[in-house]
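Subject: two folds for Thursday's group meeting

Dear M.,

Sorry for the delay on this. The cluster queue was jammed most of the week, so I only got both jobs back this morning. I'm pasting them in the order they finished. Each block is the input sequence followed by the predicted structure tokens. Could you check whether the formatting survives your parser before we put anything on slides? The first protein is the one we discussed after the seminar.
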Amino acid sequence: MNILKTTILLAAACALTSSQTFAGTPATPMAAPAKSRVSGTLSLTVDTHFISYGADTWAGGTSFSNALFHPQLEIGVQMSEELKLIFGSWWDVNDKAVSSIGGKVQEVDLWAGFAYTAGKVTYTMLYQEWMYAGASERIVDLKVGYDTFLKPTLTLHGRVDGNGGQEEGVVGVLSGSYDFAAGPVNFSIPGAVAVVTDGYHGGDAGFAYASLGLQGSIALKGAFDGTTLSAGVTYYHTEDSVLPGNVDSDFVTGNIGVSFSF
């Protein structure tokens, strides 16, 4: 009888131990899927003008009927909370001239660099190759942005090697944007003012242009999550003595496009 009682107590103890081990011990939570360090955006945009730091590249002037296709892809690799690597490409596609690249591709721009965020300040440095007309223009950009009202950004755009005898020099751009929403549409009012060094655009040094725009975008949901539709207009006032190649000193540009983020 004592042996039977002892056996029953041992069995009960084993069962209790077993139940505490597998049922009483909190299960180790499954790790949440790691967030990808790689992100990117593909943009497909149709513009009425190609404006390069105030220069009306294809002499669109006050005409609003041009259709220039400008696809862009930018990839970011988050190395740490503060540091992100940046790689990208932008194309100018149109039939305005015989292409030196192929088809209707007039220009291909490539860039690589990094962005470092310290508190509300983000420092971005990019090296760029702008390939067109059978040669390359080489650029180094430094941007400093402050995450506050109007999102002010100072950009120093340096041409370190010209294409076809262009002067080396710097464009300084102070820009910002006021953002707001109206229902499902997100609006922004971007503005900028720029100065250039002597000969950068083939003219004098000093004030180059000021711009003010209105952009609207709608972020799609559900099956189209990550897709954004956008459109906008921008008014430019440029200085003739600094930008002598522009056919008009005052003009409006337009854009419409779609972007896919991942």
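Second protein, same layout:
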Amino acid sequence: MFKSKSRFIAFICNIIISALCVTSIGSYFVLPFWKVEASYRIDKATLRSLLEDTLQNAEDDGTKIEISEADLNELGEPIIPLSISLKTTDVLSSLSGNAEETVNQILNVNVDSAVNGVMPELQKITKSVVKITSKSTIKETVKETVKDAILNKEGEKSDEELNNRVTEVLDSAGVTDEYIIDKTDELVDLIYSANATVDNVAEKAAQTVDEVFNKLKNSEDDVLQDLNFSEEDKEELKDTMKDVLSNIANEDGTIDVNQFISGTLSSLLKGNGENNEGNRAETGVILTNSSISAGNDSADQAKTEDSTEELKAALREKIEEMIPENAVEQICNILKYVSYVLLFTFFTWGYLILKILVKLTAKNNAIKLGLPIWLGWLPYLVLCLIPNGVIALLKNPPAFVANTLGADTMATLAKTFSSLTIQFSSGAWISFVVAIAFLLFALFFYRPLRKKLKKIAKGELAEVKSLDEINAEIAAATKTDEEESKTEA
């Protein structure tokens, strides 16, 4: 079949070209057609403000929740992720004509991704809220108890004198911040354990308060000698704790953080947040806005999954409410235009394979690679290169852009992008890389080969053997002549 060595080389090249063309098309179906990954870092100032707003309900009983620098350092700076992706099959399905089904399919996938990405950070933040609230509540409750004891024993004092005396008494009793943190951690660890129930958490809370009172009572300062945490007080605390815990517990009394968080967010999305207030303030707020982890058994896991699915459904419903009626058709029309561009892109790669098949038996079986080199990577240009370039430009604008936008706008951008990260990606990056490879391949090897085959096909050039082949033939002929000379001799 291959009388010409150049045709055989072109045939091998064509096999590689075809494989790369198939890869370029296939990558759109294996990888996301378009993916936008965003993450927002909550700095300490913003986090403090959010936590203070979240915990403001705890002040209804007179207890002030204080958020220290140590609390913020423990929590760090949470990063909230958000990912939005679009599959090639979703884009092409817009051509089927069912706009609502297409949009709903895209919506479902991205809602699932959003909830699954955000939940771990929500759990982390909520656990920190539990610790902060518990520590502040215990600390403030102890302080108020000591203040009452001091006023009863020593009479009226100024605020400054009273605060200094409280600090003195607590230090002498060994009820320091470190001690309170240790007791709080014990309670929180139980809440987040696999076997957390309403009963054992309530018992632990009463035990914790009892231990603190005993430590105060055993102080050398006689102002605390009359302190007493009776069995009646203990039972009352347990009952209060059980009432509050029952709002976030399962029917069997176990406590599930994921179910609580998902249920709370679902209620907020549905506009039922007011139903979750209840007796939160009167608990000593040990569990204000708390999250409690699930047990390991399959029943608890199933309940958690159900609550997560309920949250996803609520989020979908909320998004659907925000989308105008005619927006669905508009979105689908946009996807149709994108589909046409995508199909044309596939054509630019498939066209090379078609030409290779047509020219399979031709004397000049090499083809031009220009179409995909120029047009086969346009989706990557529009979906990734341009938006990523714009983001990079906004993050670090050159002088002329900064002067055009103005100082106020630049300050706003700087603040935004100090916390916000956005990255655009697409499976089209493979076709972009292949297009560059084709360009280099064509310039330095394939194009000269094609021109040579073209001249051979026209009879303008005979097939020329390579220098190595010529040298090998000369060497073989010389060897044969020497052997014949020896034979004659």
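Two things I noticed about the second structure. The two ends are 44 Å apart (CA to CA). The chain has 18 helices and three strands.

Cheers,
T.
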